[in-house]
Amino acid sequence: MPHAPFSRRRFLQSAAALATGVALSPASMVSAQASRAGELNLLVWEGYNSPNVLDPFRREFSARVSASTVISDPDAVNRLRAGETRVWDIINLNNPWARQHMHPEGLIVPLDQERFRGYYDEMLPEFQWPHEWSMSLDGEHLVGLPQRFGPFSFVVNTDKVSRATAEDQGFNVFMDPSMKGKYGILTWSDWNIFHMCLTAGFTPFRKHTPEEMEEFRKVAEYLFQNARLLSDDHLQMNQALITGTIDAYFTGGTYTASVARYEGFDNIRAITPNSGPIDGKGGIVWIEITSLVNNPNPTPLATSFLEYIMRPDVSYEVAMADGSYNPVAQMGTPSVMEKFSAKDLDAIQFDSLEEELSRCVPFQINPDYAEMLEIYTAARRTR
Amino acid sequence: MAPILELVDVHKMFGDFVALERINLEIHDGEFVTIVGPSGSGKTTLIRMLVGMDQPTTGNILLRGERINEIHANQRPTCMVFQSLALFPHRSVGENIEFPLKIRAVPKASRRARAMELLKQLHLPESFYHKGIHQCSGGERQRVALARALAFDPEILFFDEPLSALDYRLRKTLEKELKAIQRSTGKTFVYITHSIEEAMVMSDRIAILRSGRMVQVGTPDEIYHRPRDAFVAQFMGEINRFSVQKASDGTLTDTDTGVRYQAPTRVADADGTALMIRPEQIRLLPEGEHMDNVLSGVLTQSYSLGSRTQYQVSVDGRTVLVELLGRANAGVGDAVRIGWPADSAMLLKA
Amino acid sequence: MRAWLLSLRSRLSSMFPDPVAPDVSPPPLATRLWQRAPGPLLAMPVLVLLLVGFLAPLILVVTYSFMPPHTFSLTQAPTLDNYRNVFSSTYYVSFGWSVLLAALTTVLLLLVSWPIAYGLTRSFSKPMVLTLLLVLPLFISENVRLFGWVLTLSNHGVLDGTARALFDVELPMPLYNIPIVLFGMAFIFLPFMLFPMALGISMIPESCREAAYDLGATRLQVLREVEIPLAMPGIAIGSLLTFVLALGSISEAKLLGGQSIIMIAHEIETAFTYAQNWPLGAALATLLILLTAAMVIALLARLDMERLLGRGR
């Protein structure tokens, strides 16, 4: 899942985590170790913390569940690295982190393949066993289960920019002089940086040459300078799109557009470019992987929770959680599929999902992220 | 000479409540007039109208013959020393005194010179110029407030009981100083107080206010010796009061006890029903001495007032005050006779 | 200020008096301490709490600012890299916007709040109603209130939509620019200026005002010579609160301003979250704290609280 907007509260939470992470967490860890029975701590993207998902679990397992919302993948991984493996039982992040970082670093533990393999039979064709992002790098271990996913590029108002034009031109739509002052940027930095690389004409998922960095800087400065508005809140972006303040917004996908579509604004549409610089593809798809944290004092509830979210009814609740609607891998099963109404399916653009996925590459890690973020924030600051 | 300030039928209502009822008063240039009244008599309402913080409902206030009812305080050539003094706590003594001059954009140097002059006039050392208000004592603050008002150079200076918060001795000193300053500056002072003592010491004339009405205006002597009614007489100091009825033979019958009194020959009010005698006019009579009016009673209390002594004598269950120079021969518990000459009593309207 | 420090020093020295000549048989140390300085002993728990709760996070942030970039441990060799990075790049732009907007917000609120505060304490017949109206929104999240303005002011929003429906006119959209950020900040921080100011105004003795009029002052002179100086403690506290809070504000520029400018708090947030560069964020935060402290101290020194409160000079 992409980045959810920050609220000041969340920012304060993370600032407090900085302070308490050093000062107070040993104490809370001790108490955590003392009585873990019936306790489950989740570090998950927005949606998994929805009461619709958690309350039935709490009742059924008489569990004390607390969920903390992830604000960025690297932030969550760094929290585990800083010793919070003792706090969390379940972590849910975008696809590359489990197999490339958390598993090799021993932050998560492999799942029992016998117990979980069967679930893959019920997933969409793209997720059939052995699913690449569920497996460790050597293909030996099952490091997590996929559920929500979605193409993520940009969003347009099809009354202003036709779907065909947008798909043909891809991110170049935003470089068109006629678009100056008519688009917004949803400032989820990591996605913005991916998409700015694509706009500049190269893949974000490898080391970059100084020339490419320079090209990236130019694109970043141009896009910030000519944007009508910036916001880290996708609801505000949708609102600006609906009211005609902007015609399109840079960085977005079914995750962001689905809420507006569900409200009946069919002219708001997530676009996946027809082509692009990553082996000819121009779209990126994210897949959330839910894994078991390597907690020294594990709770059996963690595995139960993984099984619980794979259930058809819970899969549907996860897909249609508050604030964002998304396809789930479990839609390969009729019993899951039949829960989705025509309206639900239209909101998540299910009719074109398969076609769009074929034009996408999976989310990967950008090795130049830190350096590009500095260029990016400087461009944003001096726009 | 025309009065400097004149109140003509000044009437003030607060809703249905009559705060002041048709007040008429003339104040002359250079006079020290004190308006006295118990709390609730309307003094504060009156002075607020005189300085321009309030307006009469009907009637006129004339300053040198010109109607000033609606003229706001900051447009009037008069000013007031407040009960709270209202010194500016954020300003030094010097700045407080210079305030009215600063308002008039008087240059700094002459402002300062005038402030120094006033400090001297009010017996404050020059070093006070830079002092903070909070560092001054109560008496010093009085002087600063007066200096500030004098710096304004008002045609009339009003005072709203500024001395009431001070202790007795300091008050006495300042009363006399105030009078001296009034004399030396020749300004018209209008002073408001609830204390008749203060009024007696300082004033050329006293105006007595009761429940919104001006009951008597006159010199302190006039008012003391010829009070217009029982209220004024009582207000001027301790006094014995007997409710009486006039009999056909001209004598007076006490309505409580039936005792007959001989009436004073000079009667201010022929229909008066209050026979009033000041304690110092009554004597303890030695055996055999006779007077116009004699009563018998028992001496119940004695208080020393320094050179004088006050006694309480119980007569027919009623207490009569008697005040003597020196001490009497009788002691507490003794049966005594008291008496007074008919003309030392006053027959007044109740 | 200096007088205050002196009085603080004398208060401190009275808390810890000079040792006196010991008795023949001195009581145990604990007893002696208890007898001699019960105040400081009783204050210990609160002091410790303040140290842990207030000073410790501050020290933590400052320490982090000297750690190598992109690291998460506090035990490495200190470096000035983060500060070098801050000073060699364009962060001054964000600092500048934050200071400028905080200052403008404070000035704007001084002008706007005075008449309201004056009415609140002196003229309005039902001040409680207005107070409630001003206080109730504080229970609603700042972001929600700001987003309310976005919905009101945007294209086809409450205002524009109404104008279109009723009068068939299109209103210009005042969103996503710098003036609207200033408006948003003034809107959010109004209570922080208003209530201290109202308290300050309520502290002006009515008689001082009347005396000034009586001595010939005009309305304007009373305002300048009496009311403003006497309300100054409230004005100063309100201004300080507003300025300091506004300096750390973030949502107004984000929501109403559409990030047309990036406030320094936003940069700090980015450094701590997306960039995962805690040391950089800590360096920015440290600089912001220093900047705030410097401005607050400069202001306090100028204002001289002791004199404002009328306690000698």
How many separate domains of chain A?
Answer: 2
End-to-end CA span of chain B: 36 Å
Number of domains of chain B: 2
Count of DSSP E strands of chain B? Answer: 20
Order of strands across the widest beta sheet of chain B?
A: 6-7-8-3-9-10
Q: Find the CATH superfamily of the largest domain in chain B.
A: P-loop containing nucleotide triphosphate hydrolases
Give the H and E element order of chain B: EEEHEEEHHHEHEHEEHHEEEEEEEEEE
Largest β sheet strand count, sense and barrel closure of chain A? 11 strands, mixed
Quickly give the CATH architecture of the largest domain in chain B: 3-Layer(aba) Sandwich
If you compute it from the alpha carbons, what radius of gyration of chain B comes out, rounded to the nearest whole angstrom?
25 Å
Kindly estimate the percentage of residues of chain B that lie in beta strands according to DSSP. 25-35%
Give the CATH level 1 class of the largest domain in chain A: Alpha Beta
Order of helices and strands of chain A: HHEHEHEHEHEHEHHEHEHEEHHHHHEH
Mean pLDDT of chain A: 89
User: Could you tell me the strand content of chain A as a percent range?
Assistant: 15-25%
CATH superfamily of the largest domain in chain A: Periplasmic binding protein-like II
Instruction: Give unreliable regions of chain A as ranges.
Output: 1-34
Corresponding CATH architecture of the largest domain in chain A: 3-Layer(aba) Sandwich
Low-confidence stretches of chain B: none
CA-based shape of chain B: elongated
